[in-house]
Design a protein that fits this description.
60% of the residues lie in helices and 2% in strands. By secondary structure, it is mostly helical.
């Protein structure tokens, strides 16, 4: 069934056009064009470099009325000093698009992303040792592959984001199941969380629950292990964030200042229209399912490490949902990254807890013990 849905997805993707009239698409493709044209110097998205008419041609192909007016180019903004006009999206999505030949970039990107997600689902099947775990993998695997078309097709940034969420979920589950060396696993999780912001700047919020958990762990334990774990996560996160910081430095002159403006940088506030849109959208139903699964993991887990993972997922869900509920803009995919990160984490945590291979929680001598982070309960 996984392979049947994957084949159907790839067939649909093969008919997609790169000129579907979405402004953000043009900007992602322009970033890819800059990388292919200038190499790493393509981080500089200044419209002054637009000497080959690429952006104007793309805008004209989708019927943009002001295609020949550089000052009205979509998803571009003036820097604070007004010296140049630069793109607002981070460089990651453009970079992965640049890996494929110009004019044939979106189809292979989505096809590859679909195959990777199907691979994670098949890995879950291979690791499942009990009927309950296998049933969960079957249901979620089918949904995850389907989600790679809807709503992932809404933004080119979502394809790589979904892959990073699956990978982060796997390593997060391994971290709390005691599989592998602890500090390297924390470092991998931190790098992946930071790297996710290169595809969508809002993905930086995906790390909120992780920093909350490790921060509280240190405040409660106040030992070397919890301090080193938090430090490793923070340093690795900054390493993963380097592409965004570099792009900010090149385009806005400050690594901590992005090119975004307007509604995207508005102060958080509750908007009844935005809340209503989320409550009537599929994202709300998925968020409720993730919350319910987290509660079940906390209630029935017989390892303290699994309970600590449930706390991390719960905190991350709460912070991310609060952020987007108070964001003035609604889309059909804003909440999907945290939902999918939560689902993948919970899925692999459930599999590892119920399988002979991952069921026994083990701790490395050189790292902190998750069972002791926020709980004194014995193993």
């Amino acid at each position: 069934m996984f392979l049947a849905i994957l084949a159907s997805n790839v067939r649909l993707i093969s008919y997609w056009s790169e000129s579907r009239g979405v402004y953000d698409d043009i900007c992602y493709l322009r970033q890819a064009h800059l990388f292919q044209r200038f190499g790493w110097q393509g981080l500089d998205t200044n419209l002054a470099h637009e000497t080959d008419g690429y952006l104007a041609g793309k805008l004209r192909s989708i019927g943009y009325p002001d295609w020949n007016d550089a000052t009205r180019a979509p998803c571009h903004t003036l820097t604070a000093d007004g010296s140049k006009s630069v793109m607002t999206p981070p460089p990651g999505t453009g970079f992965v698009l640049a890996l494929f030949p110009e004019g044939f970039q979106v189809v292979p990107l989505y096809a590859l992303a679909n195959m990777i997600i199907a691979g994670f689902a098949l890995y879950g099947v291979w690791r499942a040792r009990e009927s309950v775990s296998l049933a969960l993998v079957a249901m979620f695997g089918l949904l995850s592959i389907y989600f790679m078309i809807n709503p992932t097709k809404a933004s080119y940034s979502m394809a790589p984001t979904m892959v990073v969420c699956a990978l982060t979920g796997l390593f997060t589950a391994r971290l709390f199941a005691g599989q592998g060396r602890r500090l390297p696993t924390i470092a991998i999780v931190g790098v992946l969380l930071g790297l996710s912001a290169s595809f969508r700047i809002a993905n930086v919020v995906l790390a909120a629950g992780y920093f909350l958990f490790f921060g509280l762990s240190f405040l409660i334990q106040r030992n070397r292990e919890s301090f080193v774990s938090g430090l490793a996560l923070g340093f690795a996160f900054l390493v993963g964030l380097l592409p965004v910081l570099a792009a900010n430095l090149v385009n806005s002159g400050n690594p901590l200042v992005s090119a975004y403006g307007g509604p995207d940088t508005a102060a958080p506030h509750l908007d009844p229209a935005v809340l209503h849109a989320y409550l009537t959208d599929m994202q709300f139903q998925l968020a409720v399912m993730a919350c319910a699964w987290t509660a079940l993991l906390w209630r029935f887990a017989n390892q303290a490490g699994a309970r600590q993972l449930a706390l991390l997922v719960a905190g991350n869900l709460a912070l991310n949902l609060a952020f987007f509920a108070t964001h003035p803009v609604f889309t059909q995919y804003y909440v999907m990254p945290v939902v999918m990160l939560s689902f993948w984490t919970l899925l692999f945590a459930t599999i590892f807890a119920r399988s002979p291979i991952g069921g026994r929680v083990r701790y490395e001598a050189d790292g902190p013990r998750p069972a002791e982070m926020l709980s004194r309960s014995p193993r």
